[in-house]
Amino acid sequence: MYIHNKKLTIPEDPNTIIWKYMDLSKFLDLLLSNKMFMARSDKFEDQYEGTFSEPTYEEIKSISHDNPAFLDEYKQRRKNIMISSWHLNEYESFAMWQIFTKNSEGLAIQSTVGRLQEALAAEDRVDQYIGEVHYIDYKKEYIPFNDDFFPFLFKRKSFQYEKEIRVLTDVSHLGKPIHEGIKINVDINALIEKIYIHPKSENWYKRLVMELMEKLHFQFDIEKSDLESDILI
User: Fold this and answer.
1) Origin, by domain of life (predicted)?
2) Contacts of 17 (CB under 8 A, 6+ apart)
């Protein structure tokens, strides 16, 4: 279930809009399984994911000098922290369409922070936490140790365009190796407010998505991306 952690920063307004951009295959997997995929933190493309800034590393070195097992424990922890990434934005993002969907056959889930919290209540195996990502200068800025998910809520400033908010969970208590990630139970109807179709998609693709929703007995609002609206002259 979702657990509120006062040390993790999230928007105060539960109606704050969030997005998840994905291909149709991943979307169908979400609907058919009623489960949301969370990736292992050390499997992300960003090689700095879950690592330390330089000022933090200097402190880590002093800690590990007296406690050599600390770094080994931390490396193992990276394999046990699972993450689901969402985009925090009132509007669609052209960049997110480009990065997270292939060709012109992707879609975006529009949700809210409150809906995400409600949807996560369906999970009973592992606890989930939600936090905003902080973008810092890794050469100059310090990553604090004040929560259990340090440093998985920090990224380099060059990733600021992601405006990321994350669902995080620690699966170390499961006592088994996790390869790529885990799937957690979610309430699909609570999670999804609207579905937006890729701005470059053709009409047949929107009809296909609508037919799939009907056959799967979902009644989400389906919109064509606002980025492809008619030009007014």
Assistant:
1) Bacteria
2) 88, 89, 90, 110, 111, 112
